[in-house]
Amino acid sequence: MINHKFIYSFALLILFPFAFVYFLYLGIKNSDFDQIKNRLGFISQIYGKNDICVHCSSLGEVNGAKEFIKEIRKNNNILISTNTLSGRKRASELFPKIDVLYFPLDYKFFVSNWLRRVNIKTMLIYETEIWPNFYKTCKKENIKLVIINARLKKNLHNKKFIKNIYLEALNNCNLVMCKSDYEKQKYLRLGLKNENLLTVGNLKYAYKFDTKRDRNNFLGNYFLMASTHHPDEKKFLQAIKDLNDDGIGTVIAPRHIKRANAVADFFKKNGISTIFLSNNYDSVLKGSFDFRSIVIIDTFGDLQDFYSSAKYVYVGGGYSKRGVQNIIEPSVHGRPILVGPNIDNFYDEIMNLKKLKGMLSIEDNKDISDQENIAQHIKKYRKLSDEDLSEIGEVARAYSLKFKDIVEKYVISLKENNIIN
Q1: N or C, fewer C-beta in 10 Å, the chain?
Q2: Are residues 192 and 228 in the same domain?
Q3: Nearest CA to 333 among 384, 396, 382, 286?
């Protein structure tokens, strides 16, 4: 029988030329050659003496870990690693005095060289990114390794090859700190020992919004589709047309901004005009624009300004394999939230809100198409009075604010386990 370690090593060997060319291309395209150097384990200069590295895969993870990083840096020297240019830019913007590096490719030599250069004592992985060689090297070098806000994809325990690779890597962790009991059960089914697992809570409840814009200038009669994934826009086409016919506009924020042009092309082919926020800041943000055209948010950092003044909010991803995106941000803004059927990413959070009647969800209906099913749900949504909508939003807001001490819980737990100072 072929060993899973051999398969993984062989796959890395085959993929290396493609990875090298890809990151070299990104380095040239973005004039950022750290994208290739850091990936290969080479680091030109580190300005601070760092004890802890917090790894945040991309921009979303950087935003999610923001308050946690602010807190632990009070008593610890830290650096941040990321996988994306947007993640690095965001981390540097939030923490200009902290070193921000790209994470190395998962080859033993690159990993060893990278870890030797950063010279850290503790590695904190925000949410679950599992790199077998990196995890193994951390263990070998006596670097404490902890996953915080941990989650797993559903049913990984049924995929033998992935299960073997993940379990072997995870056994190198000092702790896996889960965001919910639902996620903890996934790790247990995978085979991880209970003594290495803790349920602490979702760090995204530490979300705080701050805007300099005057929300009173925003139009409030629009439907906000936040953090959409393909095929969200296609599924909601009929509902959007119905809303448009009744004078209710739609604002769409694709989860990945690079999808903005594809989203615009899709609606154009279906007879609906669109505009990009980047080209229409003044007219949109001052509330002087006619929202009968779909507004596409193609900029970073502006979505939160649209939450508080939206009449209805759909959090995207519920019709994709990826699953529903972050529901906590709109809940903190006190808006009524609608989600699709794939809720695995925020299962506990959504189920608890549904019990409290602080959220609405679209259930699958095999008797009709998804488009028709969604359109029917939106019609029911719209029949709710402003008072009912406000009450739903306030239930969600109050529930989220119950966990405002979540960062403190993580810090206390990490200190108790001698992971951080």
Answers
A1: N
A2: no
A3: 396
Residues 220 and 173 in one domain: no
Asked whether the beta carbons of 295 and 285 are under 8 A apart, the reply is no
Asked, for residue 11, whether it belongs to a domain, the answer is no
Cα separation, 122 vs 188, in Å, equals 24
Task: Give 399's DSSP letter.
Answer: H
Q: What is the CATH number of the domain that holds 33?
A: 3.40.50.11720
Amino acid at 283: S
- Claim to verify: residue 378 and residue 292 sit in the same structural domain: yes
Distance (Å, whole) CA 208 – CA 371? 34
Length of the chain: 421
pLDDT at position 215, please?
A: 46
Based on the fold, state whether residues 411 and 390 are members of the same structural domain: no
* Alpha carbon distance 133, 12 (integer Å): 11
CA quadruple 392, 394, 395, 396: dihedral sign: positive
- How many domains are there within the chain? 2
Q: Is 144 helix (H, G, I), strand (E, B) or coil?
A: strand
Instruction: Indicate whether 226 and 296 sit together in one domain.
Output: yes
19 lies in a domain? no
AA letter at 396:
A
Query: Does residue 205 contact residue 406 with C-beta atoms inside 8 Å?
Result: yes
Q: Are residues 110 and 243 in the same domain?
A: no
Q: Which domain holds residue 234?
A: 215-401
Mean pLDDT (the chain) is 90
In a domain, 12, yes or no: no
Question: Could you read off the pLDDT of 147-185 as tens digits, one per residue?
Answer: 999 999 888 777 888 889 999 999 999 999 999 999 999
Per the CB < 8 A criterion, the answer to whether 245 and 219 are in contact is no
Neighbours of 271 (CB within 10 A): 7
Q: Which DSSP letter does residue 255 get?
A: S
Cα distance between residue 65 and residue 372, in whole Å: 38
Q: Which amino acid is at 25?
A: Y
Residue ranges in the chain whose pLDDT is less than 50? 1, 212-217
Q: Residues 312, 287: contact at Cβ < 8 Å?
A: no
| 3-state secondary structure at position 175 | strand
| Structural domain contains residue 15 | no
Looking at the fold, whether 174 and 248 belong to one and the same domain comes out as no
| Pairing of β 222-228 and β 312-315 | parallel
pTM for the whole thing? 0.90
How far apart CA 254 and CA 233 sit, in angstroms, is 9
- Which tokens go with 235? 């599924």
